[in-house]
Amino acid sequence: MTTETKSPADAVAPADITVPPARPMSRRTDESPGASIGAGSTGSRRPTAVRGRTTIAAAVVEKIAGMAAREVPGVTAPAGGFNRVGALRHRLTGDREGVSRGVRVEVGERQTAIDLNVVVEYGLSIPEVTTAVRENVILALERMTGLEVVEVNIMVEDVRLPEEEIIEPEPDVRVM
Length: 176
Prior knowledge:
By secondary structure, the chain is of the alpha+beta class. It is built from 3 helices and 4 strands, in the order αβαββαβ. Strands 1, 2, 3 and 4 form a 4-stranded mixed sheet that branches.
């Protein structure tokens, strides 16, 4: 009895077996934040998570924290943010730092700590508003950056009275 050996190039798959197409590289949604593409693949290749480093700048963390704090009902603006002088400077220069005004952060490789100064609307429960701010900031930062938020310290600097006018900068308005 003789057996013929075929090279892989000569091999033909039977008609009833289908070979799935190669998967395109895409972000896996079933993994935890911070997981990388290709992690968990078999073979001698290292997971992509160990093939480089991602560094998140403090300014990015400040902006995310500032936006998350402003999303909470009852927070009119981060303190020191949109007073008349700040709004005027934004309109004249296109200053985009308003989002992170009143926010200070410390960012490490895996953890961050946040200090927020806020203004709360008169009549609302400050403990309830600050709890909501703290939760929203932690959720936003951990979801978007993968950093563990160690603490969010909140200083309520002022209470906005109903008759006080809030001047918010208009988006993308620049004076030439």
